[in-house]
Amino acid sequence: MLQRRRKPPKKFNLKQFIQGNNVLAIALTFGTLVAVLFLCVGGIIGWLYKEHQQRLIIPEMHPEMYDLKGNLIPDEIIAFRFENVNFDSETEEEL
Q1: Which domain holds residue 64?
Q2: C-alpha angle 55-60-66 in degrees, rounded to nearest 5
Q3: Helix (H, G, I), strand (E, B) or coil at 66
Q4: Of 5, 36, 52, 67, which one has the fewest beta carbons inside 10 Å?
């Protein structure tokens, strides 16, 4: 029985690879990689800039934390903590 002659494997040809729908796939791949790269670099630069700004800026206190001369009052500030804000008197009567 005679067998067909096998075709030799084609070598990689860039010109033939770029033709057709492959251009869209290549453009989308590189576009995605560039977008992710810019996102990572922008995130790192933003993080470093935020830390730089936090080191430079002096945090300001609320005006009620100062006395009449503008000095900070560390001990005389009263803090209130309210718990059960939505407390109904009707539920107390039922218990």
Answers
A1: 14-87
A2: 145
A3: strand
A4: 5
Which pLDDT value is given to residue 94? 57
Question: If we measure between CA atoms, which residue out of 60, 81, 58, 57 comes closest to residue 72?
Answer: 60
Residue 4 within any structural domain of the chain = no
pLDDT digits (tens, 9 = 90+) for 22-69: 778 888 999 999 999 999 999 999 999 999 999 998 878 777 788 888
What is the value of pTM for the model shown? 0.46
**45, part of any domain:** yes
Please identify which residue in the block is written with the tokens 């922008």. Answer: 42
Whether 6 is in a domain gets the answer no
In a domain, 94, yes or no: no
The total number of structural domains in the chain stands at 1
> DSSP state, 86?
T
Q: In terms of pLDDT, which residue wins out, 5 or 51?
A: 51
Q: Which tokens hold the place of 36?
A: 């992710």
